[in-house]
Amino acid sequence: MIYPLLRRVLFSMDAEKAHGIALSGISFLQASGLSGLVADRFVDDPVEVMGIRFPNKVGLAAGLDKNGAHIDGLAALGFGHIEIGTITPRPQPGNPKPRLFRIPEAQAIINRMGFNNGGVDALLQNVRQAEFPKKGGILGINIGKNADTPMEKATGDYLTCLEKVYSEASYVTINISSPNTKNLRELQKDEALDELLSRLKAAQQQLADRHGRYVPLVLKIAPDLDDLQITAIADALKRHRMDGVIATNTTLSRAGVENLPNGNETGGLSGAPEFPMATSVLGKLSHALQGEVPIIGVGGIMKGEDARAKFDAGASLVQIYTGFIYRGPELVREVAESLRTRPGRP
Questions:
Q1: Contacts (Cβ under 8 Å, ≥6 apart) of 117
Q2: What is the pLDDT of residue 198?
Q3: DSSP β-ladder status, 295-297 and 268-271
Q4: φ/ψ bin of 267: left (φ > 0), alpha (ψ from -120 to 50), beta (otherwise)
Q5: Which CATH entry fits the domain spanning 3-338: 3.20.20.70, 1.25.40.10, 3.40.50.150, 2.130.10.10?
């Protein structure tokens, strides 16, 4: 595989600059019919989750392609689904640079991007130009609130995004767990979560009637939760009949990177050090849900064995991000192959 050579070049650059170059390169290879230089044969392993038929069990997590500008290029790398975003109603620059940091010694990344994106309308233009959704590809769209929207009006931002993306999405993810938008995780608390989910589910039903098509709603949660919080969230997911849950987003913990270069940067930590915490939360959530809501497992998947552990803990699908940065398309195939014999939960 050519990716280890490419990674050496990319890792010699500023992390955010390299990210942009890599995405442009992926799109160029796809447009030129050369994706095979970096991607392996697609692993066909269909599974039905949330009423959607996924062609295999591994997806790309949100955050890599925030504006949906590289959907076709990424889809050519073997993913069973692609999740784009997080997107907000209005464009916003995100947090000041530098805001993306590699920790190679731990196979980790810290980011404090802050939902930098071109706004929901720009994302929709990109989605409508992409071939992947037109050909039946599974596209998740991850939505959030603008940084300057007061918390008491946050639900309005989610409703705006949901209405706009509904017709273009295979499913919609509600991101209330990024650590990089001030107070966003407050929405995970009981009363705030109840109000948010209640209003989003009501809007979902109205949109389903209007469009003649039901689009599942998924909640993305943090790994930094205690057992009582996990139980409360599970109860809310069941009470509001949410279609799925993603466990988990990045962590505020610095376990495993405390004494490494960049290890004390502020932001969310992802990659190998997050794996134990994220998988533990997934397992506890699965126990609390009792199979009523399917779980997409995310956090620290660096090899096929890690993905199998997510399934053993209760996942129906997995997504990768940091592992993809470190290992490239090889990891997509390895994970998909490792899950071929694992039954999904609908």
A1: 66, 67, 85, 86, 87, 88, 91, 92, 94, 123
A2: 98
A3: unpaired
A4: left
A5: 3.20.20.70
Residue for token pair 């994302």: 123
Amino acid (one-letter) located at 256:
G
Q: Which residues in the chain land under pLDDT 50?
A: none
Which positions are catalytic? 178
Q: Distance between CA 331 and CA 195 in Å, rounded? A: 39
pTM over 0.85: yes
Q: Which residue has the tokens 């409508």?
A: 128
Domain ranges of the chain: 3-338
Contact indicator for 75, 268 with CB cutoff of 8 Å:
no
pLDDT digits (tens, 9 = 90+) for 210-265: 999 999 999 999 999 999 999 999 999 999 999 999 999 999 999 999 999 999 99
What pLDDT is stored for residue 275 in this prediction?
98
